[in-house]
């Protein structure tokens, strides 16, 4: 069953993880959707000439209001396709909410135990990873492109939560919409480090299929799930979306499909009083 459920409210299209919000009512957790009519671009920085920073800022504020979270809670990492995970406290609340320069620098993953702090990360094909450790009530989000995936950013988030006192057997993870194996072909520079981190030929063959010598169709979502299982997480605690951001043009921006000229969705997770 697809864990990310689409809904639209006040002209804002988005997905929620109903299972988590029902089980843990103090959480708000989801993924924004594309809106061709309104343009719900939540890009983490103005990059293209046609981008409108004021529109991006308006969209973020609109979404925060819908979630009943103050915009001052919106907190982002810089996202450099790395594997650094930062524990965020109240002093960093609001980092990156209005510009990349104020974001938590050199950071693709964040965790926090703070309430009324909304962790936000941006996507247009890369894989969003969400985390919740119910035994210590800490949350996390990570940006996992192929570099972050093979670099083990998912494992790094799990390790950081364990350092905070979480039992790895209790940690929940959700892997959100991203480009699917139907649309994502890679070469050996991706497969070889993936082979190394998985250290399991069977697992590798489950996530990457080769139909042309030297080329593979890679399932980034499934690869991240396998890596999280290797970190000690229980498979039943890992939710995996089936949505492909490249295929589903009505719902998602896609860097690959749109040849780089596209917006960004935002993945968020926060705790409310």
From TrEMBL:
Cofactor(s) required for function per UniProt: Zn(2+)
Pfam families: Cu-oxidase_4
Molecular function via GO: copper ion binding; hydrolase activity; S-methyl-5-thioadenosine phosphorylase activity
Classification via CDD domains: YfiH (cd16833)
Matching InterPro entries: Cu_polyphenol_OxRdtase, Cu_polyphenol_OxRdtase_sf, Cytotoxic_necrot_fac-like_cat
SUPFAM superfamilies named in the record: CNF1/YfiH-like putative cysteine hydrolases
Catalyzed reactions: S-methyl-5'-thioadenosine + phosphate = 5-(methylsulfanyl)-alpha-D-ribose 1-phosphate + adenine; adenosine + H2O + H(+) = inosine + NH4(+); adenosine + phosphate = alpha-D-ribose 1-phosphate + adenine; inosine + phosphate = alpha-D-ribose 1-phosphate + hypoxanthine
Keywords linked to the UniProt accession: Hydrolase, Metal-binding, Transferase, Zinc
Record keyword Phosphoprotein present: no
Stated role: Purine nucleoside enzyme that catalyzes the phosphorolysis of adenosine and inosine nucleosides, yielding D-ribose 1-phosphate and the respective free bases, adenine and hypoxanthine. Also catalyzes the phosphorolysis of S-methyl-5'-thioadenosine into adenine and S-methyl-5-thio-alpha-D-ribose 1-phosphate. Also has adenosine deaminase activity.
Protein family: Belongs to the purine nucleoside phosphorylase YfiH/LACC1 family.
Name assigned to this protein: Purine nucleoside phosphorylase
Source organism of this protein record: Thermoactinomyces mirandus
Gene for this chain: pgeF
């Amino acid at each position: 069953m697809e864990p990310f459920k689409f809904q639209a409210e006040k002209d804002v299209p988005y997905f929620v993880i109903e299972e988590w919000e029902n089980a843990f009512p103090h959480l708000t957790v989801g993924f924004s959707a594309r809106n061709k009519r309104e343009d719900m671009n939540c890009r983490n920085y103005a990059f293209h000439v046609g981008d409108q920073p004021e529109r991006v800022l308006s969209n973020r504020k609109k979404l925060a209001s819908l979630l009943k979270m103050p915009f001052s809670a919106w907190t982002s990492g810089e996202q450099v396709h790395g594997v650094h995970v930062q524990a965020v406290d109240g002093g960093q609340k609001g980092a990156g909410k209005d510009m990349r320069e104020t974001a938590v620098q050199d950071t693709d993953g964040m965790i926090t135990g703070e309430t009324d702090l909304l962790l936000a990360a941006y996507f247009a094909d890369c894989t969003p990873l969400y985390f919740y450790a119910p035994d210590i009530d800490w949350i996390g989000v990570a940006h996992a492109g192929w570099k972050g995936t093979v670099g083990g950013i998912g494992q790094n988030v799990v390790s950081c939560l364990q350092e905070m006192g979480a039992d790895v057997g209790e940690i929940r993870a959700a892997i959100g919409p991203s480009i699917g194996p139907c649309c994502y072909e890679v070469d050996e520079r991706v497969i070889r480090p993936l082979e190394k981190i998985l250290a399991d030929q069977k697992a590798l063959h489950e996530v990457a299929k080769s139909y042309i010598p030297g080329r593979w169709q890679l399932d980034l979502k499934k690869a991240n799930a396998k890596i999280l299982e290797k970190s000690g997480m229980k498979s039943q605690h890992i939710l995996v979306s089936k949505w492909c951001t490249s295929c589903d043009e009505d719902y998602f921006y896609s860097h690959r499909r749109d040849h780089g000229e596209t917006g960004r969705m935002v993945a968020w997770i926060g705790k409310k009083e």
